[in-house]
Amino acid sequence: MADRITVLQGRAEDVKLPEKVDVIVSEWMGYALFYESMLPSVLHIRDRWMKKVRLKDRKKSDTVDGVILPSSASLYIAPFSDDEISERLETWSAMKEKYKVSMDCMKTYAKQCLSYGAHVRCICPEDVIAHACQLVNFDLSKVTVQEVTDIQRNFELTCFGSSVLHGFVLWFTVSFPENVILSTSPYSQQVFLTLSIIKAI
C-alpha cells in the first residue's frame, strides 16, 4: 500500500496538504466524550482541509462536500445507585463490632476519596435509576471549537422510584452514515470504553 498511502508526521494543526480532502476519519473520543481534548484539533483540520463545494457548483451531480467520520456525537447523563459503594463504606463501621476498634475516621476519609472528582468504570444497567438526559448533540460537520470547549447545560432527571443516589454516570454515542451507531451506554452490548462516573455520595 506504500504507493497509495502517504504518512505525514506532525501536529494536525501544522500539516500541509496538496489539496482539500474528501474524508476525515478520527477516533478522537475519550472518556465522557471530551476528556482527551482531541476534537478541537479535528475541527481545525475540518475547517482548513475538508472539501467544501461552492454554492454555484452544488447542482452538479459529481460535486459533494467532504465527509467527517464519525458524523455526529452525543453525550448523556443519568443518576445511578451502587450497593458496592455502601458496602465499602460500611466495612469501616464494621471494624468496631468485629475488632473492637473504631475506624469511623477512615470511613469519613474513604467517603471523601470516593466522592472526589470523576472515576472510570462500568455500570450495570440495573444500577441506573432514571432515564438519561442528553447533554449535547453535535453535528461534527458544523460544530465550532467554541461550542465544544465551553459546554454548560441545565438538566432535570426523575428517578424511577425511591433509591439512594450515589452519583451520575456519563456516556456517549457517535454516529456514522447508514445509521451506524457506536455507543458506550450501559445498555449497549458492545462497549469499547468504560463509563465515566461523577460520584456524589
UniProtKB/TrEMBL annotation:
GO biological process, one term: methylation
Pfam family, one: PRMT_C
One MF term in the entry's GO annotations: histone methyltransferase activity
Domain called Protein arginine N-methyltransferase: residue spans: 72-189
Keywords recorded for this protein, A-Z: Methyltransferase, S-adenosyl-L-methionine, Transferase
Keyword Methyltransferase set for record: yes
PROSITE patterns assigned: SAM_MT_PRMT
The UniProt record lists the keyword Amino-acid biosynthesis: no
Protein name in UniProt: Protein arginine N-methyltransferase 6
Annotated source species: Magallana gigas (Pacific oyster)
UniProt lineage: Eukaryota, Metazoa, Spiralia, Lophotrochozoa, Mollusca
